[in-house]
Design a protein that fits this description.
The complex is a heterodimer.
Chain A: E1 4-8, E2 13-17, H1 22-32, E3 53-54, H2 59-65, E4 68-69, E5 73-77, H3 84-97, E6 102-106, E7 124-128, H4 152-168, H5 173-190, E8 195-200, H6 205-209, H7 213-223, E9 229-234, E10 245-256, H8 260-263, E11 278-288, E12 298-305
Parallel strand pairs in A: 5-9, 5-10, 6-7, 6-8, 8-9
Antiparallel strand pairs in A: 1-2, 3-4, 10-11, 11-12
Helix pairs in contact in A: 5-7
Chain B: E1 3-7, H1 11-19, E2 28-32, E3 39-43, H2 45-49, H3 58-61, E4 68-71, H4 74-89, E5 95-97, E6 102-106, H5 111-114, H6 117-130, E7 136-140, H7 143-152, E8 156-158, H8 164-168, H9 186-198, H10 204-209, H11 212-231, E9 247-257, H12 260-280, E10 284-294, E11 303-314, H13 317-330, E12 337-347, H14 364-378, E13 383-388, E14 397-400, H15 410-413, E15 424-425, E16 428-442, E17 445-450, E18 460-473, E19 481-492, E20 495-504, E21 510-516
Parallel strand pairs in B: 2-4, 7-8
Antiparallel strand pairs in B: 1-6, 1-7, 2-3, 5-6, 9-12, 10-11, 10-12, 13-14, 16-17, 16-21, 17-18, 18-19, 19-20, 20-21
Helix pairs in contact in B: 1-4, 4-12, 12-13, 13-14
The chains are: A alpha/beta, B alpha+beta.
Chain lengths: ~300, ~525
C-alpha cells in the first residue's frame, strides 16, 4: 500500500490520504452494516458456468449455434412459413429420442402430430391452450374475500356469468397467452423436463409484445442450473435479453423446392404435376451468450422436407 | 409361544375420535338409538367425571356443559376395526379377529424381526396410535391371558411366562365377561357374578384359588373354564383370519359441508388414515374413489362420485388431497355434503431406482400434481400425450393420459426412431377450427383466396398450387369423408405464405386447414 503526504500551506498541517485503501475501507464498512451483510458485491459474483449444449436435430443449426443450451432460454423467431415449427419439431424429436421428457405448450392449438415425424409421443406432453370454459370455482374465495356458496343456484349463476363473458370475448389470444405462461410456470417449477417448448407462432405481435419481460426473466431464472431447455418460437423476439440464444429464421432465397417454378414456369405445368417438397430456410444468429463474446451475425441455410417426400 | 392382544376400550367412542381427534380433549358421549329414545352408549373419562353414565338419555346429558354428543357410527366402527386388523397384520400374518376392538396376534418367530417382546408390544401400541386408535396392548404366553391383560391393564403389559395367574390376580371378575368367552347371555353373566360375590370372590386371584372339584360341582364346566382363564392355564389355538384388502374410510357429518376448505380438512384426515393403513400393509394405491352423499342434490341418487386414477401407485396423502381438491374444483358436487366415503384400490408400491446416467424425468408424484393443475387451467382433455390412430382421416389422433415410462439407459436412447432422417420435417401448423375460405378457380386450380374471419390467413393471389391430392375414407359408415388437398403459396403483406387448402367433396366447401412452417 502506498500513501503520500502533501503539505497544505493554508492549514500548515500535513494531510495524509490513502486513495487506494479507501475503496477497501468503504467495502469493509458497508459489509459490516447488518442490512448489507448478505449482499455480495458484483466483483465477487459467481461466474456462470458454460451451459451444456444438446443437439437441435438440425445439423446446420448445431453448426451455427453449437446446439441448444441446457438451463437457458432459446428463442426462434420468424414470419409464417419460415420454418420455426419445423425447427421446434426437430428439437423435440431429438430430445424425445434421447429419452427426455418434453412438454409443448401450444398457445394456439396449432400442433399437428401427423407431421411430427420422429417425435416420440410417449415422452411428449402436449398442452393445448384453447378457449375452454374456465374452471368453475368450487366454494373458492373470490378476490374480494366473499365466499362463493356451493349451492346449485350459485354455481349456475357463476357459470352463466362466465359463459356469457366468454361468448362476448372475441379475441381470446391474451387469455391463451396467459394460460400458456401459467402452464409454463407450472412445468418449470415441477422440474424434470428435458425440454419445455412454448409455441407463440400464431400469437399476434401486439399480444406477444405485452408479455412482461419479468416473466421471461423469471423463466430464465427457474431453468438456470437445471437440464431443461426452454424453447420459444414466435414471430418476433419476445424474451429480449433473457434469451441466451436467439435465432431468426426467414424463407430462403429459394422459397421452397418448387420456387424455381414460381417466376417462369408457373402455369407451364398442371397443378397435379407439381409437388410441395419442403422449405428452404435461412437462419440468422442474432444473440448467443454461450460463448461469451459478441455474436457475429452469422447465417446458415437448411432445407426441410415434407413428410411425403421420404 | 407368545401372543399379543390389541384391545381398544370404548371402541365406538374411539372410532369416532379417530375421525375427530380434536374431541379427545373434550368430554364426549356416544348416543345410540333412534332420535326420541337416544341413550348414552359410551363416554370418555372426561365425560365420566362430568357425571355422564351409560344409559342416560339425551335430554339428561345435554345439561352437561361442554359435552360433545355424537351418534354411534357403524361405518366408522367398521373402518376402525379394519384399521386395527391392518395394524396387527403389519406385525404378524397369524391374526385372530376377536370382535370389534379386539385383535389377537401370534408373535411366534417375531422376535428376530422386531426385537424383544416389550419392544414389539410398544411398537404395536405406537402403530395403533398412528392409525388413530389408543389401544391397550398385552403380551402373554397364551391368547386368553393376553386378552384379559389387555382388557384389565392400560397401556402396554408384558406378562412373563409362568406368571400369568400372579399378574392377572388383581383384575376384577368383570374382565372375564367383557368379551365373548362363550358366555354371551347377560342374565347368565349376572347370575355368575352374583354367585361369585356371595362366595366373597372379588378378583381373579380369588377365583383361581377356589378348589377345582367343588367349583365344578356347583358351576359346571363354565366355572372350570373361568377358573382356567383366571389361572392363565387355558390353552387354545388361534383362529386366524385373512383380512380382506379393503381400504375404505367414511365419515358421516353432523352438519352439511358447503365449502371446499372444510371438505378438504375432512378429506385430509381420511386420506391420512387410508395411507397409514396402506403403509401398514406395505401397499400403495393407484385408484381413489370418492363418494359424497349430498343433502339436496338434483341427482336422484344423491350420491356424487369421483374416481381418481393414477398412472403409478402412490402413497402420499398430501398429493392425494391436492389432486382431489383440483378435481373437485373442476367438478363441483353441486349440493351440500353430508357423508364422505373414500376408498383406495390397493396396489404394490412402485419399485424404482434412479440412475446417474439416465435422462431427466419429472418425479411421478410431482408430475401428477402438475398435470392436475394444468388441467385446471386449460380444461380437461386438453393435456396429455398423442396416440396416432390407424386411419387416414384428418386429425387422426386422440389424446391420452400422459404417463412417460421409466427412463431407459442412454445407450438405448441413442437409437433413432424409424422414419427420422437427417433433414427436418416440414411442419404443418393447424388452424383449429379450420378457416372457411372463398376460393376463385382458374384453369382447374385455385387462383385467389379470401378468408374474412381469420387474420392469420392472408387474402391474395395464389402464386403456386400443387394438387389436388384426393383422399376419402369411412364411406361405409355414417361418418364418411372425402376431400381434395391443395398446397398453395399466397403472396400477402408479410411475404409468401404456404397453406394447405382443403375442399370438402361432400359439402363442396373450401377450408384453410393450416400453414406450412
Amino acid at each position: 500500500m502506498s500513501s503520500f503526504v502533501t503539505a497544505a500551506p493554508m492549514l500548515r498541517r500535513p494531510v495524509v490520504s490513502a486513495p487506494q485503501e479507501q475503496p477497501v475501507f468503504v467495502f469493509k464498512r458497508f459489509s459490516a452494516m447488518p442490512k448489507l451483510a448478505g449482499v455480495t458485491s458484483a466483483s465477487r459474483l459467481e461466474v456462470r458456468p458454460t451451459p451444456e449444449m444438446v443437439p437441435s436435430g438440425i445439423a446446420e443449426i448445431d453448426a451455427l449455434a453449437g446446439g441448444l443450451p441446457r438451463g437457458c432460454l432459446t428463442e426462434v423467431c420468424g414470419p409464417a412459413s419460415s420454418g420455426r415449427t419445423s425447427v421446434l419439431l426437430a428439437a423435440l424429436a431429438a430430445a424425445t429420442q434421447r429419452q427426455e421428457t418434453c412438454a409443448l405448450v401450444d398457445t394456439t392449438d396449432a400442433f399437428d402430430p401427423l407431421s411430427a415425424l420422429g417425435v416420440n409421443f410417449e415422452r411428449l406432453l402436449w398442452i393445448r391452450c384453447c378457449h375452454a370454459e374456465r374452471r368453475r370455482s368450487f366454494a373458492k374465495r373470490s378476490s374480494c374475500g366473499v365466499e362463493a356458496s356451493l349451492s346449485p343456484r350459485s354455481v349456475e349463476k357463476a357459470g352463466g356469468v362466465r359463459s356469457a363473458r366468454n361468448d362476448n370475448s372475441r379475441n381470446d389470444n391474451p387469455e391463451k397467452v396467459e394460460q400458456a405462461l401459467r402452464v409454463t410456470d407450472l412445468l418449470l417449477q415441477s422440474g424434470g423436463f428435458g425440454m419445455v417448448a412454448i409455441d407463440l407462432g400464431d400469437v399476434p405481435l401486439q399480444t406477444a409484445r405485452r408479455i412482461p419481460l419479468t416473466t421471461w426473466f423469471r423463466f430464465q431464472r427457474v431453468v438456470e442450473r437445471t437440464p431443461t431447455v426452454l424453447f420459444v418460437i414466435g414471430q418476433i423476439p419476445c424474451a429480449q435479453t433473457c434469451a441466451a440464444l436467439l435465432l431468426r429464421l426467414q424463407p430462403g432465397n429459394k422459397l421452397s423446392a418448387f420456387s424455381s417454378q414460381l417466376s417462369v414456369k408457373n402455369g407451364a405445368f398442371p397443378a397435379h404435376a407439381q409437388l410441395f417438397e419442403g422449405l428452404h430456410v435461412k437462419g440468422e444468429l442474432l444473440r448467443s451468450r454461450v460463448e461469451r463474446k459478441p455474436a457475429a451475425s452469422v447465417t446458415a441455410a437448411f432445407t426441410t422436407k415434407a413428410a411425403w417426400t421420404g | 409361544m407368545p401372543f399379543a392382544c390389541i384391545f381398544v376400550p370404548d371402541f365406538p367412542l374411539e372410532a369416532l375420535l379417530r375421525a375427530e381427534p380434536e374431541l379427545r380433549s373434550l368430554p364426549v358421549a356416544v348416543l345410540e338409538g333412534k332420535t326420541p329414545l337416544q341413550k348414552v352408549f359410551a363416554r370418555n373419562e372426561k365425560a365420566r367425571h362430568a357425571g355422564v353414565e351409560p344409559g342416560m338419555t339425551k335430554p339428561q346429558v345435554e345439561a352437561c356443559s361442554g359435552l360433545a354428543l355424537r351418534n354411534r357410527s357403524p361405518v366408522q366402527e367398521a373402518a376402525a376395526h379394519a384399521a386395527l386388523l391392518d395394524c396387527a397384520q403389519s406385525f404378524s400374518p397369524c391374526v385372530e379377529d376377536g370382535g370389534y376392538g379386539t385383535v389377537v396376534l401370534d408373535l411366534a418367530g417375531m422376535e428376530p424381526l422386531f426385537g424383544p417382546l416389550p419392544k414389539i408390544a410398544r411398537a404395536v401400541a405406537r402403530q395403533a396410535l398412528d392409525l388413530g386408535l389408543e389401544a391397550h396392548v398385552a403380551v402373554a404366553s397364551n391368547p386368553d391371558t393376553a386378552v384379559l391383560a389387555a382388557r384389565g391393564f392400560t397401556g402396554v403389559t408384558v406378562i412373563p411366562e409362568g406368571k400369568d395367574a400372579e399378574q392377572l390376580g388383581s383384575l376384577p371378575l368383570e374382565v372375564l365377561f367383557a368379551g365373548s368367552f362363550d358366555l354371551e347371555g347377560e342374565q347368565e353373566i349376572g347370575q355368575l357374578l352374583e354367585t361369585f360375590h356371595r362366595w366373597g370372590v372379588r378378583n381373579l386371584h380369588g377365583l383361581a384359588a377356589l378348589p377345582d372339584v367343588p367349583l365344578s360341582e356347583r358351576l359346571g364346566q363354565k366355572g372350570v373354564f373361568l377358573q382356567q382363564l383366571a389361572r392363565g392355564a387355558a390353552s387354545r389355538t388361534l383362529a386366524p383370519v385373512e383380512a380382506p384388502l379393503v381400504f375404505e374410510e367414511a365419515i358421516e357429518l353432523e352438519y352439511p359441508v358447503l365449502l371446499l376448505e372444510p371438505l378438504a380438512f375432512l378429506l385430509a384426515r381420511l386420506l391420512e388414515q387410508l395411507c397409514a393403513r396402506l403403509g401398514a400393509r406395505t401397499l400403495a394405491t393407484q385408484e381413489l374413489r370418492l363418494q359424497l352423499g349430498l343433502a339436496n342434490g338434483r341427482n336422484p341418487a344423491k350420491i356424487f362420485q369421483r374416481t381418481l386414477r393414477l398412472p403409478i401407485p402412490l402413497l402420499d396423502p398430501k398429493i392425494f388431497l391436492k389432486l382431489l381438491q383440483l378435481d373437485l374444483q373442476a367438478h363441483p358436487p353441486g349440493a351440500p355434503i353430508v357423508k364422505i366415503h373414500l376408498a383406495a384400490e390397493p396396489a404394490p408400491p412402485r419399485a424404482a431406482q434412479g440412475g446417474l446416467f439416465l435422462p431427466p424425468s419429472p418425479e411421478p408424484e410431482q408430475l401428477e400434481l402438475t398435470l392436475a393443475r394444468i388441467a385446471g387451467i386449460v380444461g380437461e382433455g386438453k393435456t396429455g400425450s398423442v396416440e396416432l390412430l390407424d386411419t387416414h382421416r384428418p386429425e387422426g389422433f386422440r389424446m391420452q393420459r400422459f404417463a412417460p415410462g421409466g427412463p431407459q439407459s442412454m445407450s438405448d436412447a441413442g437409437s433413432p426412431r424409424p422414419g427420422s432422417s437427417d433433414a427436418a420435417v416440414t411442419a404443418l401448423r393447424m388452424f383449429r377450427p379450420s378457416v372457411p375460405a372463398t376460393v376463385t378457380m382458374r384453369d382447374g386450380k385455385p387462383s385467389r383466396i379470401a378468408c374474412s374471419k381469420r387474420k392469420q390467413v392472408q387474402d391474395g393471389e395464389v402464386l403456386w398450387a400443387a394438387g389436388p391430392w384426393r383422399a376419402s375414407g369411412d364411406w361405409w359408415e355414417h361418418e364418411g369423408w372425402a376431400r381434395d388437398e391443395w398446397d398453395i403459396a399466397v403472396w400477402g403483406e408479410a411475404g409468401v405464405t404456404l397453406y394447405r387448402l382443403v375442399r370438402d367433396l361432400l359439402s363442396g366447401r373450401w377450408w384453410m386447414e393450416g400453414t406450412y412452417d
